[in-house]
Write a structure and sequence with these properties.
644 residues, alpha/beta, Molybdopterin biosynthesis moeA protein, domain 3, 5 domains
Length: 644
């Protein structure tokens, strides 16, 4: 099959217009009748009229006595009137039917009981005083609810009281989700995840899509995994089209690979409206129609799949039910660093968000389309327009919030060197019952100090070695955070060294072995404390950076370095012992270094930072850090020095 090349990519707005307009603004998913008591959240397919009036009789609205109002006229405080029980007044409770011939109620608080048969009143009643008349709330044939009304809890009460026991509503759309890929395996078929085998991938996109479908008030139906065989995909699609599905989503196979059959099949069976959308992630999206049913070829990468669904499937599913697409809360933010972007493509940048003083700071997360954790960690999405080459940290841009705005105010922004204990700190804070989150940006120790100086974080994580004095962080703080008063607290001591493949197949013993031609290295980014330490150790041994194969291959976290070694992309890399241990890799220790948290002193007494300090001083946190291996938390939370 000929590979598809995106020569006619549509802009996001153009693609949405083509797709959604094809199915018409008034298109609906069909009608069904349901019981009124089961109708919460459903949308009426026709207007609802009252079958009976309510109340159906004149009823007392107060506890007291029923009277004939005209018989009480002329009564005053100075000229009270005596009423005879039964003849001129009847005791009555709230909700009871008014006895025939009576037309008003006097509250019990306004009565003086002379004896068993006589009652004294000191004010007249007026006709229908404290009486709920027939039809006062609802009159038979009255319009209760219009068409396309979403039923609320009190609407159910109104319907039942008006004798409406069943109603016609729009059906919840059924969405058939077809996962495709010969490499996919179902989690239900796996007994030991560690033995899945090379080339096999856990299928989870269909479950993410199914949950997104449910969020749209629709019903997902997950098809079995379909192999990358054209005829099998065609049969699965035909089966879905013959069912009562209102929409079909084919996950994966929408791109330009040799086994990406979706566009070809849709064009043969129906019409491809759009193939290729100028959005990132999500570019390979296919929008089509077969037998008057919408068919979406959804990209296989997790983030692409999610964003494609949000832009195309979600609005159509709400439309089919007569529902308004829920609005998105927008928050103005400043990015913590400059972010370049590809011209001509609208990018959806996932970000962490937190308030630092008067500023709202968004920290970009990794941009990979296959990184599902960027969605689990994201608090917002910044959309970079197609005609922009990126966003400067000096610009104020809008972020679409994925969490409640209150959570943004309860966030501590930590920018700087990556360390596993920062993630653990965030979890421990929550475990201790505090409504506080940690947002971390991994830009290296030097990047963290620069972020402090720009006032865009609550704390910087740093482990910068002064190669002349052997001291950590202080000389760099003096140089790069001049003029800002900061307080330095110890977090941990940790073991840095070479992360090696299991069993150390290359027999690497130390830095000197990195100059060998058969050894490939993975480095940390410039400006990170690990890079500073590595360059210092190279210099001590007289090893030139250019003699290290892979010196320019950079990663931003210790775990990323460890994964490169595990995958075989490198033979070794510079990182912490805890990362090597987490993936059961080898390790050669080179240095026990000091990792500190540096706070602007103005923040130290704030409740959020006090919670952070209390947590890192706690025994529970220290025990959890020790369990990671390669850490010494004996001085965690200890104040070291104030500078500036």
């Amino acid at each position: 099959m000929k590979r598809h090349v995106y020569l006619a990519m549509k802009s996001l707005e153009e693609a949405k217009e083509i797709f959604l307009s094809r199915f018409g603004a008034g298109r609906r998913s069909g009608v069904e009748e349901i019981a009124a008591e089961d109708s919460l959240g459903r949308v009426t397919a026709e207007p609802i009229f009252a079958a009976i009036s309510t109340p159906t009789y004149h009823a007392a609205a107060m506890d007291g006595i029923a009277v004939r109002a005209e018989e009480t006229y002329g009564t005053t405080e100075r000229k009270p009137k005596i009423l005879k029980v039964k003849d001129e007044a009847c005791w009555i409770n709230t909700g009871q039917a008014l006895p025939e011939g009576f037309n008003a109620v006097i509250m019990v608080e306004k009565l003086h009981q002379v004896d068993e048969e006589r009652l004294e009143i000191r004010a007249p009643a007026y006709p229908w005083q404290h009486v709920r008349k027939v039809g006062e709330d609802i009159v038979a044939t009255q319009l209760l609810l219009p068409q396309d009304h979403r039923v609320r809890p009190y609407d159910i009460g109104a319907m039942l009281s008006a004798g409406v026991f069943a109603l016609r509503v729009w059906k919840k759309p059924r969405v058939v989700i077809i996962p495709t890929g010969s490499e996919l395996v179902r989690h239900k078929d796996i007994t030991d995840p560690g033995e899945m085998g090379i080339g096999k991938i856990m299928e989870y996109n269909s479950y993410v899509l199914a949950a997104l479908v449910r969020e749209c008030e629709a019903v997902p139906v997950i098809h079995g995994i379909v192999q990358d065989v054209e005829e099998e995909i065609r049969r699965a699609l035909e089966s879905a089209l013959d069912s009562d599905a209102h929409m079909i989503i084919i996950n994966a196979g929408s791109s330009a690979g040799a086994k990406d059959y979706t566009a070809h099949i849709v064009s043969q069976m129906g019409e491809v409206l759009v193939h290729g959308v100028a959005m990132m992630p999500g570019k390979p999206t296919i929008l089509g129609v077969i037998k008057d049913k919408p068919v979406i070829g959804n990209p296989g990468y997790a983030v692409s799949s999610t964003l494609s669904f949000q832009q195309f499937a979600r609005p159509l599913l709400f439309m089919l039910q007569g529902l308004r697409v829920p609005g998105t809360k927008i928050l103005p933010v400043n990015l913590s660093r400059d972010v370049p972007s590809k011209l001509g493509i609208e990018e959806f940048l996932r970000v962490n968000i937190g308030k630092v003083g008067e500023k709202t700071i968004a920290t970009p997360l990794p941009r990979g389309a296959g990184s599902i954790t960027t969605m689990t960690r994201a608090e917002g999405i910044v959309r970079i327009p197609a005609l922009s080459e990126g966003v400067s940290q000096k610009e104020t841009v809008n972020a679409e919030l994925l969490v409640d705005e209150e959570e943004i105010s309860n966030t501590v922004v930590v920018i700087g060197s990556h360390d596993i204990t920062i993630d653990l700190l965030g979890d421990e804070i929550r475990r201790r019952g505090h409504n506080l989150r940690i947002s971390s940006g991994n830009v290296g120790s030097l990047g963290g100090l620069m972020a402090l100086r720009r006032g865009i974080c609550h704390a910087a994580g740093s482990h910068l070695l002064d190669t002349e004095t052997g001291e950590y962080n202080l000389s760099y703080i003096k140089r790069y955070v001049k003029g800002l008063k900061v307080s330095v607290f110890h977090l941990v001591l940790r073991d840095q060294g070479l992360i090696l493949g299991r069993g150390n197949p290359k027999g690497i013993q130390g830095i000197q072995d990195l100059a060998r031609e058969d050894v490939t290295f993975v480095n940390r980014q410039a400006g990170s404390g690990t890079r500073v330490l590595f360059d210092y150790l190279l210099g001590q041994l007289g090893v030139r950076p250019e003699s290290v194969r892979g010196y320019d291959h950079e990663e931003f976290t210790h775990m990323a370095v460890a994964v490169d070694v595990l995958s075989g992309a490198a033979d070794c890399g510079m990182g912490i012992y805890a990362a090597a241990r987490a993936l059961n890799l080898g390790f050669v220790p080179l240095e026990r270094e000091q990792y500190d948290l540096i706070f602007p002193s103005a923040f130290i007494e704030t409740p959020a930072i006090q919670v952070v300090l209390e947590t890192i001083r706690s025994q529970d946190f220290r025990e959890r850090v020790k369990a990671l291996g390669g850490y010494d938390p004996a001085r965690s939370g200890q104040f070291w020095v104030e500078m500036g």
